[in-house]
Amino acid sequence: MKPKHNAGITAPLGFQAAGIHCGIKKPALLDLALCVSEVSGPIAGVFTKNRVAAAPVLLDRRHLRHHCGRAIIVNSGNANACTGEQGLIAAATMAKTVARHLSVPVYQVFVGSTGVIGRTLPIDRITSAIPTLISRLSSKGGAQAARAILTTDLRPKTVSLHARIGGRVVTIGGMAKGSGMIHPNMATMLAYLTTDANITPPALQQALKAAVDQSFNCISVDGDTSTNDTVLCLANGLANNQPLQHGTKAYGDFERLLTDAARELALKICRDGEGVTKIVTVLVEGANTTAAAKRVAETVATSNLVKTALFGEDANWGRVMAAVGRSGVPINPTKVTVRFDDIEMVQQGVGTGLNTEKKIAQVFKRKEFTIAIHLGQGAASAHMWTTDLSYDYVRINASYRS
pLDDT tens across 267-315, in order? Predict the structure, then answer.
């Protein structure tokens, strides 16, 4: 499952993309992206659980009922959230304009927006730019599209993977944006995946949900969830494999490939988090249920005291134990062990001494490491990826709109 090339969202057969400046952001900054499939096909989506959902999310949820997609248009610099009826009209206008120029049904066009909440979307600038955007479509346009969806991100995030599935080479491409407001159930992040797999709509939706649960729902930068988070996966069937259906070996191979692609994008979001200097895997094992393991992992991963200790390279393992204890999961402290990479700091709920603490202090200086917690209860496990919380995070978000 190696990258096919660096085309990102245009890596699979039959996809083109483009990214241009339309006037939402400062001059020379790309702020409008489009991805189009050569043919229509199944599309799956997972969206924010925030009850204050942006206009593009509301539109996409409606369009997803048709289970068929052809194009995805995304603007950055403006979230089109908390904009009322005017925002809904703007999102619909984006879709209608693309649909008219491509001669496809409007429900096959999906819309994304990211940026500042509460500002009116300059829809005239977008619609005026759409003909130019379409004229720039290219199988090599994935890099520009990936740049056009960024906000506070430091770098674009793309992925291209392929594998032989059902006797055919199937490719998955993708792009994502996300730097702050990242939390389980997604956050201010957008991710768009494409594939040339031939797959039924229900199987694609199930595969995407499974992939998201193991990737974007396993990362935390700051504990905030946003109004716009969206993950879409568009398939066009041009790999000419037998239709993938849930329960088959070929489907399992596809789900793993999709999960690998989603994980790669999720980790790139973590590594590009606002002010981030460290990426830490929180692994919880020995739980009675997967839900319990995930609850403990999420509590540790989102603890501000743990995250600030990571930034300060302070080997304060007591903060990890305190987070485990307040997770709401019934535990027996005398059965808990905690390792930092390969060094066991806690045995049967008790620290192993100052000499060990000096060793884990060296682990805390690493850019990436693992906190492994064993609850001593059962066989279930879960993981999360978290980041430190730095001075730069506060600086970036204190001046986001300026």
Answer: 888 777 666 788 899 999 999 999 999 999 999 998 989 999 999 999 9
Rounded Cα distance, 40 and 194, in Å: 12
Q: Where are the domains of the chain?
A: 8-271, 279-398
Measured CA distances, 76 to 73, 171, 253, 373 (Å): 10, 27, 34, 39
Specify the 3-state DSSP secondary structure of 258: helix
Overall CATH class of domain 8-271: alpha beta
Over residues 206-217, mean pLDDT: 93
For domain 279-398, is the CATH number 3.10.20.340? yes
The CB-side HSE value for 375 (13 A sphere, CA atoms) comes to 28
User: Strands 368-374 and 337-340: what pairing?
Assistant: antiparallel
Q: Tell me the C-alpha distance between 334 and 347, whole Å.
A: 8
Cα separation, 321 vs 150, in Å, equals 37
For the chain, the farthest-separated pair of C-alpha atoms sits apart, in whole angstroms, at 70
Residue 227: active-site member: no
84-102 and 55-64 helices cross at what angle (nearest 10)?
A: 50
What pLDDT is attached to residue 123? Answer: 97
The string of pLDDT tens digits covering residues 250-272 is 999 999 999 999 999 988 887 77
In total, the chain counts a number of residues equal to 402
125 and 25 in contact (C-beta within 8 Å)? Answer: no
Q: What are the angstrom distances between the C-alpha of 373 and each of 98, 189, 211, 214, 311?
A: 50, 28, 24, 18, 20
pLDDT at 10: 98
First-residue to last-residue Cα distance in the chain:
43
Out of 114, 151, 188, 387, the active site residue is 188
Is 361 buried (19+), middle (13-18) or exposed (0-12) by CB count in 10 A?
A: middle
**What sign results for the dihedral spanned by CA atoms 208, 211, 215, 217?**
positive
pTM of this prediction? 0.85
Q: Are 12 and 195 in contact (CB under 8 A)?
A: yes
What angle is formed at CA 380 by the lines to CA 378 and CA 383, rounded to 5 degrees? 135
